[in-house]
Amino acid sequence: MLTATSLNAAIPSPLRLPHPCTAHRKPVKARAGCCLRSNGDANSFYNKASPNAESEGHDNAKMTQPSNEEMEVKKGDIWRLFREAQQNILYLNKQRLMAIEELKKSNREKQLLVARIKHLEAEKQAGVGKDKLSVCWELLLRLDSIVLTGMISTGEASDLRRLVMDQVVGMADASNDILQKNDAELLAELRHFSDRSKKTGFCIVHICTEMEPLVSVGSLASYVTGLSCALQRKGHLVEVILPKYTIMDLDEVQGLREIDAEYYSYFNGQLHGNKIWTGVVHGIGVSFIQPLYYSSFFNREKVYGYSDDFERFTYFSRASLDYIVKSGKQPDVLHIHNWETSIVGPLFWDIFVKQGLGGTRILLTCHDFDSQYLEQPDKLSLCGLDPPKLHRPDRLQDNTKTHLVNILKGGVVYSNKVVIMSSIHSKGRIIRSFSHGLEHTLSTHKDKLVIAPCGFDNSIWDPSMDNFLPENYSAEDMKGKVVCRVALQHHLALSNNASAVLVGCIITEVSDIDLGNLKAVVRSATRRGVQFIFMDISKKSSKDRALEFIQELLKDENVRFINELDEALSHLVFAGSDIIVCQSFHDPVLQVPLKALKYGAAPIAVTSTDTTFRHFVDHNYESTKFSQFISSGFGRLSLSQALDEIENNPSRWKQKIMDAMGMDFSWDAECYDVHVSAYTAIQNL
């Protein structure tokens, strides 16, 4: 039975339970006062008032003594009050926890908003680039409208576009006046800018099917945006042409406007009208092509995966080239992507190069040779190409199914350079092992091929200025990482054990992981006191399997599971972890290994074929700098080996982490350098 002391200790102030001896006691009337003489007798007043005091007192004692039944009632009342108090305490605690979670959620949302505001301010203050580029793009897109409405010729439009690009500084200084003028006044004003400076950067036009944050399916979207921003930060002018999907999120487009004119494009034996929408995204000029007759091509629930994908993207490719010619654009490079816009290559060299684009060259980026698209040769005539001319072994004829044409192969053959996106494989290994039937073609055009690593956005992912973190840190001052680690442990109710190694695991698709092997590795590590945090950011179909996989591991007090996409918490996981387990070192979508290195967490990769929890990468002169760095540092370590090194040689491990944090693997680094070198090479052809 609980004593009064233990009962009171269980109930926090201000809630107090009545003492068992006084609970439900009726008010007692005040008794007459009495004084005791020195001999101990009561005074005469008391004796007169109660001549039979002794006998009455005895009788009263009998009358006031509670019966067993009353005692049981009182005990029942006490326990009822105790249970009610317990329920009140539990309810208040539950409300308190809910309030704390709401407060945390509000704080995270506030942090996200502050981070976005600071990011926009940083972009605005980033120097000469941002404001002037925005002005430049508004002027260029106005010129597109002017030439399509027939006010000027394509030749004059091309000259004025070059003038705007060369005179960005002068245009920006007069922006308040210029941008307020109507089309006729704008033309008159532009013609006053007759002094031309020497052009130092490239003019690049992407013809592509994705761009972050407008429409994103795979790695193409972040690549187009990341590379384009890096190029513009360093003085090049980049434009993107996209289909106008109905599922596209256009809230991020600044100055979205519809050009009040149609232009026509050839398809299936006829000319068909298109509308153009223009705007600016992250300082990049974007044009959206909207077919009028074939309006259903991009009015769908998803981007890819339809039986008429060849027709859809061939139409878009031809319409993009028609738009470039009709608007007087003369880019240095047409940058095309994957099979979806590979048809631009043969279209350009067979039809459009003679339409004022003699100085333009073609660069193809291929993210995956697994997707090539085979089609009947006669369908090439839909966009105006000659099937017999192209259905040849040295052109578009597929190497295996020779009765079909291979669209991606055509892109390789007809491009001046081909950039293969791979962070870990060399050119030779890609040709031998990952060409998916194009080995002969890639070997023939080997001199065209260059390998580029993926990058990441270090304006958002940088621990030295990350607004989501409780305290910032860098390779020079790592104190903040300890604070982030403690904050992460506290948030997930993990024991605050300073000596425990904290391992984060980002789950995207559990089908790519050997779950049995991973479970064994986790169990072995937790026996050493290692703490694990699994963060599932996969699609709904994969989440159920991921949760099923993790349920058994969750019985361990050192394992936690985050089943939501929380941007603030994901930053804290990278910052608080000592190791990040990732599915591959080549992660073009989430860039988990790159972010881990930046945040001072060692990336350890695992794939479904790894029986020892390792992931080897190429280490030769044809590999990327990232591949060479990761091979010499973390690429050949299993998790147990990494734990051993942390335990046995902490100073060496700390130095490896600091060296990794000092490396630059953002879009502005090696990825940018490879592309500019490729652009330079093809301009000299």
UniProtKB/TrEMBL annotation:
Reactions listed under catalytic activity: [(1->4)-alpha-D-glucosyl](n) + ADP-alpha-D-glucose = [(1->4)-alpha-D-glucosyl](n+1) + ADP + H(+)
Gene3D superfamilies: Glycogen Phosphorylase B (3.40.50.2000)
InterPro entries named in the record: Starch_synth_cat_dom
Top-level EC class as recorded in UniProt: transferase
Keyword line: Glycosyltransferase, Starch biosynthesis, Transferase
EC number(s) given by UniProt: 2.4.1.21
Pathway named in the protein's UniProt entry: Glycan biosynthesis; starch biosynthesis
GO biological process, one term: starch biosynthetic process
Residue ranges occupied by any Starch synthase catalytic domain in the UniProt entry: 204-443
GO molecular function: alpha-1,4-glucan glucosyltransferase (ADP-glucose donor) activity
Residue ranges of the region described as Disordered: 46-70
PANTHER family: PTHR46083, UDP-GLYCOSYLTRANSFERASE SUPERFAMILY PROTEIN
Annotated protein name in UniProt: starch synthase
Species this protein is from: Carpinus fangiana
